[in-house]
Design goal:
4-stranded antiparallel sheet; 19 helices; 6-stranded mixed sheet; about 45% helix; 20 strands; alpha+beta
């Protein structure tokens, strides 16, 4: 049996994220089914799962960077990664609030993970989340978070006592949500976002005690109880707020007559409202965000703006999606923009879409420039920004956006192999035929996309794209962050590294010379076409110089140059 932590160190944070993801995975469908506020669109459980998936992936990336070290990462690194991952991967109203809760906790836990720090972290989280919401409403996840923090107050030095108290306080608060928010009372359910937070806190209990807690709402006394609520036009049933289901109601807080696979019917509150959900990440200064809040608040509702230190996550429901995005452009640099149309009929979410296309390509790209190139070629793109790899949920969303019966998925990164495989498997369960071409670099994806022919047979098309990618050798230039041993020798911080097919092959002192050396080594084995993808700050003069170098030293080899925009590597190279 693994040793239980005395405080929340990096290993405990990693375990917490993993257990929270498992818990939300088990409860996702039930949480989706009781989602009636603020929009009855049945996606709260899914949004919370995807948010925690992104947080967990960020923590795993921190541990992966320490694989060769003798010690685990610092607690501060782990909790900050968790908060950052949740911020960039937050989905929907509930996921955005959860991201702010985790950010509020991380700000305190970075200084210590004992019982006293955890108490302050819970209070900081609840306060930060409430401040992020333009118009806080009681009976929601905000109330559950506040009650969890209140229940954890005291002087007990035992971490397990504090965590358990917070969890029980959250369960009791969750049980009271139908009394506080009329829409929940009419539907006969507890708040979906609050239910998700209880699952996350339950995972924290399991992390520090080694035992999974009793799931579901709970009364303040800890006993199972019935809370009368009105549903179905006036009949009274018992809402389950204990470990034992009440007659007529499921364990998860859902009337037994309601369909578990879809959102509850709530016409009184769900029939009217803004037409679009707009979400984006925003790079902006604090004073710009303050003005943005005011402008977006006037445009719509369900406004939540979370983040800080120059990076923000914006969520709002509006009728004018263009105006919401324009407000972001005026405030700073918005990206990862997602706009969802709410089309409701009797309170149910109905996605109005055209007939699916026969085939589409979904491609992961490292920057805005290649995203434009691939979009022009007809592909659906997902941008993998530096330090922000897409989660499987984001790839599934892209496959859905492609809206085709057949999809070819190009991950363009060896590290995304398992993530892409998980996304493909999920999409297949939804009836989409997905083929994963294991491209390991953006230049291989470009080569595969260039031979894509939607009019030929699916298998034939996939074979051709796979062959084109496999025939493309790839390289990139990177800047060494610290002294380390490589396949090409020992490098120093600041050296320019030339990686060929993923391994360091050249160590240089400046970009042009290193790039020429890499090209010569790649072309020594032959080639007909060189692809150069320049980073945002790389001058055009470098491309001109490399093109001339190829012409002079390698006859009959063509060169094509693309602007990659804001990408991790200053230069990507492909040789076909």
């Amino acid at each position: 049996m693994p040793q239980l932590p005395d405080d929340l160190d990096a290993v405990a944070v990693r375990t917490w994220c993993s257990l929270a993801l498992d818990a939300l995975g088990r409860e996702r469908a039930e949480i989706d089914a009781i989602n009636v506020y603020p929009i009855a669109d049945g996606d709260t459980g899914t949004n919370l799962y995807l948010t925690v998936e992104s947080a967990s992936a960020a923590v795993e990336a921190v541990f992966a960077a320490h694989e060769t070290g003798a010690t685990a990462p610092a607690t501060a690194d782990a909790v900050r990664a968790m908060a950052h991952g949740a911020l960039i991967g937050a989905r929907g109203n509930s996921g955005t609030i959860l991201a702010q809760l985790l950010r509020g906790m991380a700000g305190v836990l970075a200084d210590g993970g004992d019982a006293a720090h955890l108490r302050r972290a819970l209070t900081s989280a609840a306060d930060a989340a409430r401040q992020a919401v333009a118009h806080p409403v009681e009976g929601t996840v905000l109330t559950v978070a506040a009650e969890a923090a209140e229940a954890a107050r005291g002087e007990d030095p035992d971490l397990r006592t504090v965590v358990t108290a917070a969890y029980e306080g959250a369960r009791a608060a969750l049980a009271r949500t139908p009394e506080q928010l009329a829409v929940l009372g009419r539907a006969g359910v507890v708040d979906a976002g609050g239910r998700g937070l209880v699952a996350v806190l339950g995972a924290l209990v399991e992390t520090v005690t080694g035992q999974a807690p009793v799931r579901g709402p709970r009364t303040a006394s800890g006993n199972a109880a019935k809370t009368p609520v009105t549903v179905d036009g006036g009949s009274v049933v018992g809402l389950p707020v204990g470990g034992t289901p009440v007659e007529g109601v499921t364990e998860g807080g859902l009337p037994a007559s309601a369909p578990v696979e879809g959102p509850l019917d709530c016409p009184e509150d769900g029939a009217a409202g803004p037409a679009f959900e707009v979400i984006y990440l925003l790079e902006a200064r604090d004073e710009q965000v303050a003005r943005l809040r005011t402008r977006l608040d006037a445009l719509g509702d369900s406004l939540v703006v979370v983040g800080g230190d120059g990076l923000w996550h914006v969520h709002v429901h509006v009728d004018d999606a263009g105006a919401a995005v324009e407000a972001g452009v005026e405030a700073g640099r918005p990206y990862r923009i997602r706009i969802t149309h709410f089309a409701t009929e009797s309170g149910h979410d109905v996605r109005v879409q055209a007939e699916p296309a026969q085939r589409a390509v979904v491609v992961v790209v490292p920057g805005d420039g290649l995203a434009g190139l691939c979009t022009d070629a007809g592909a659906t793109t997902v941008i993998a920004r530096p330090g922000e790899p897409p989660a499987s949920g984001e790839l599934v969303d892209a496959i859905r956006r492609a809206h085709a019966r057949e999809v070819v998925l190009l991950p363009n990164d060896a590290a995304l192999r398992h993530t892409a495989a998980a996304a493909a498997e999920q999409a297949r369960t939804e009836g989409v035929r997905v083929a994963l071409v294991p491209t390991r670099a953006a230049v291989q994806g470009i080569a595969a996309l260039a031979v894509h022919e939607p009019d030929r047979g699916f298998d034939e098309d996939v074979v051709a794209m796979t062959a084109a990618a496999g025939a493309t050798r790839y390289a990139e230039l990177a800047v060494a962050e610290r002294q380390s041993w490589t396949m090409a020798g020992i490098c120093q911080a600041g050296d320019i590294l030339g990686l060929i097919d993923g391994d360091v092959a050249v160590i240089g002192s400046e970009v042009p010379h290193t790039a020429r050396t890499v090209l010569d080594r790649m072309l020594a084995a032959g080639g007909e076409l060189v692809t150069l993808v320049l980073g945002e700050d790389v001058p055009d003069a470098l491309a001109d110089a490399l093109e001339e170098h190829v012409r002079e030293g390698h006859l009959a080899v063509d060169t094509v140059v693309y602007r990659g925009g804001h990408q991790r590597a200053p230069l990507l190279i492909g040789v076909e």
